[in-house]
Design brief:
The protein is α/β, with parallel strands linked by helices and about 350 residues long. It has two domains: about 130 residues, 3-Layer(aba) Sandwich (Rossmann fold), CATH 3.40.50; about 200 residues, Methylesterase CheB, C-terminal domain (Rossmann fold, 3-Layer(aba) Sandwich). It contains 13 helices and 14 strands. It has a seven-stranded parallel sheet, with helices on both faces. A five-stranded parallel sheet has the order 2-1-3-4-5, sandwiched between helices. It has a two-stranded antiparallel ribbon with strand order 10-11. Helix 4 links the parallel strand 4 and strand 5. The radius of gyration is 20 Å and the shape is globular. It is found in: Cytoplasm. One of its GO terms (molecular function) is protein-glutamine glutaminase activity. It comes from Lutispora thermophila DSM 19022. Keywords: Chemotaxis, Cytoplasm, Hydrolase, Phosphoprotein. Its EC number is 3.1.1.61, 3.5.1.44.
């Protein structure tokens, strides 16, 4: 049985002990060390060579983001952030994901007397999948005037517009992957872009606000009743489902609602959104499935192809976790599979 060594980083002795106790409930995990701040974390990552690191977001002396940057430079290893469910915690967590953290978990969902066994099991299962499968992300942040991007845009602008909507679905590793795509859409992009990123409630608003600071297009968390308009990027809100609806005036608007269905694991669910969009846009819909665990998007992509829409999936070489794209590719639903560095160019061929 494969064993995985974990380094637990947190400034609170209570948290270090509590997190360690949860992790060691799984016999495949062993705590190889603890660190009280970012400085210790950097030192012990090099010394102990853990398979995975859990990192507190906010710490004295050196915070989790600064430590994360250093670890990625010196000794890259999968790092998951443990965050507080606050507005400030959400903002910092989004920045950590941009800097290379593989994923994050809410402390309130991992420890505490009222945490359900199933929630704890899900945490340990995800942690194990990350330890087994995750590649250390290499955030690719190009300059806004990157010659390659400018060349791609100028070459493609003269081509006919083939689709009227782009839907991008992603999960683990998504925020870093989206950095290689969203900031490079030009201001005159003619189609709306809808992004579905698996996250706990409260975090997609911070994700949208963060991207809005450096994207050419306006980025916002989607709201019920929003009319889809070109030149905008809509981030589907976590904790709810996002559906599309064609109004009597021909415009397409969003319906944001809480759907109670035990068979639907994710909120937002890529499947739910795609199944509502495919019959509306038909061959004028482009779907992009990026890195992520599980197979959300598979059912939705079946619907997209049924209506002659288009599907791009990220290739295994660049995925943090090759789960969602693999499910779509293996079923023969992808029109093309490319590494992350080529996804933007392929999208531009359609819009």
């Amino acid at each position: 049985m494969q064993q995985y060594g974990v380094l637990v980083v947190d400034d609170s002795s209570f948290m270090r002990k509590s997190i360690s106790l949860v992790i060691e409930k799984d016999p495949q995990f062993s705590i190889v060390g603890i660190a009280r701040d970012g400085y210790e974390a950097i030192e012990k990552v090099q010394l102990l060579k853990p398979d995975i690191v859990t990192m507190d977001v906010e710490m004295p002396k050196m915070d989790g983001i600064t430590a994360l940057k250093k670890i990625m430079e010196i000794n890259p290893v999968p790092v998951v952030m443990l965050s507080n469910h606050t507005e400030e915690g959400a903002e910092i967590t989004i920045r950590a994901l941009e800097q290379g953290a593989v994923d994050f978990f809410l402390k309130s969902e991992v420890i505490g007397h009222d945490v359900e066994d199933k929630v704890m099991e899900d945490f340990l299962c995800k942690l194990k999948m990350i330890a087994e499968n995750a590649k250390v992300p290499r955030p690719e942040v190009k300059d806004a005037e990157d010659k390659g991007v400018v060349s791609i845009i100028s070459e493609i602008k003269s081509k006919p517009q083939l689709v009227d909507l782009v839907i991008i679905g992603t999960s683990t590793g998504g925020p870093a992957a989206l950095q290689s795509i969203l900031p490079y859409f030009p201001e005159d992009t003619r189609v709306p872009i809808l992004v579905l990123q698996h996250m706990p409630p409260g975090f997609t608003k911070s994700l949208a606000e963060r991207f809005n600071t450096f994207c050419n297009l306006h980025v916002k968390e989607a709201e019920d009743g929003d009319v889809l308009e070109g030149g905008n990027i809509y981030i589907a809100p976590a904790g709810l489902q996002t559906l599309l609806y064609k109004r009597s005036d021909g415009n397409i608007s969003l319906i944001i609602e809480d759907m109670h269905n035990e068979k639907i694991l994710y909120k937002p669910s890529i499947n739910v959104t795609l199944e509502s969009a495919a019959p509306i846009y038909k061959e004028r819909l482009l779907t992009v499935i990026l890195t992520g665990m599980g197979n959300d998007g598979l059912i939705g992509c079946r619907s997209v192809k049924k209506y002659n829409g288009h599907v791009i999936v990220e290739a295994e070489e660049s995925c943090i976790v090759y789960g969602m794209p693999k499910a779509v590719f293996d079923e023969g639903l992808a029109d093309i599979q490319v590494t992350l560095s080529n996804v933007f160019e392929k999208i531009m061929l359609y819009i």
